[in-house]
Design brief:
Elements: E1 8-10, H1 39-62, H2 77-84, E2 92-96, H3 100-105, H4 110-117, E3 141-145, H5 151-164, E4 171-176, H6 183-194, E5 199-205, E6 208-209, E7 212-213, H7 214-217, E8 235-239, H8 243-258, E9 264-269, H9 287-294, H10 298-308, H11 314-337
Parallel strand pairs: 2-3, 2-4, 4-5, 5-9, 8-9
Antiparallel strand pairs: 1-8, 6-7
Helix pairs in contact: 1-2, 1-10, 1-11, 2-8, 4-11
Bound molecules: thiamine diphosphate and magnesium ion.
Amino acid sequence: MASRTKPREKSSSTDAKPAKNGKSVVSGRGNTGVNAATDYIELFRQMYLIREFELACGENYSKGLIRGFLHLYIGQEATGVGAISTLRADDYIVSHYRDHGHALARGLDVNRSMAELFGRATGLSKGKGGSMHLFDAAKGFMGGHAIVAGQLPLAAGLALAQQYQKTDALTMCFFGDGSTNQGVYHETLNLAAVWKLPVLFFLENNMYGMGSSIERVRAGGIDFYPGMATYGIPAAEVDGMDVLAVKEATEYAVDRIRKGDGPQFIEAKTFRFTGHSLADGQKYRGQEEVKKWEQRDPIATFPEKLIKMGLASSAKIEAVKAEVSKQIALAVKFAEDSPEPDISELFTDVFA
Ligand SMILES: Cc1ncc(C[n+]2csc(CCOP(=O)(O)OP(=O)(O)O)c2C)c(N)n1
Ligand SMILES: [Mg+2]
């Protein structure tokens, strides 16, 4: 098996154990619905789909076809894909505003996702939400959310409903390091632990919140997982650039939640290769740091690993890439050809 990073676990909980090494990480029971033999390729396909989708977004943003803010997930694909591949169809996902990767990994329609970014009526949110508000209740994808940390209490609410309904379904809540100085972050962690809610708090620690490096703005340093002792929540750290490590650590946490052990916390160390948004000149960080992380780009390193291990041929990888590129070109065409929302839509879906 690949040189997987064993997730480190720090917790106040006495029975917390690290993820089992040697356990198969190719369960085939995720929302991808593929069998064990093709799972690795599927993980790569999803990561590549996200990368190509976002490159196309960037291009169409420059052309003025996508407007507003555009926050790309480029560099973080292994984190979202590895985590979401462990979920069942009846689980919920709540995401932040950097949500394209989570939406695509969950299997949301690519055409309708692109149309949403273009602000077209065929979009997932009828073109009224845009990049930060991809949503598909039928897929349990309960939204990208623009208010930093605003999604945490929503996740707790969804998990409370799941607990009340006595299912073993769970809610996976993604958030960034920038969320962690918000009061509601601490309130939610505490309440979720007190009520033993079936929620997986998934921190995507990409080292920056807009132009602020965590080192500069956080008294406790760059590691968040040890702090979970305060809430009695078992917590693990994982290499967010390694899709298999993320999958393994998440599977372990998900299993515990389904058994009724209450909330779990995973911190994936990752990096966004582009600026905070496309309006960011990145004056706060040097290119050396970016280059160092780019050497670990999962889009390059994962297929290299698969080929080296004899799990995929380079012809297969190239075929997947070609198929995805075609799919993205069609998605852009679908979005471009779609109508803008009717003016009457200004007064629908308004909750006040
Ligand atoms: C409550 C609130 N405060 C401020 C902002 C402005 N804002 C948007 S993104 C962001 C940084 C968030 O950083 P992080 O959570 O680390 O996510 P990342 O961008 O790194 O994915 C801030 C402060 C906001 N959207 N909501
Ligand atoms: Mg961040």
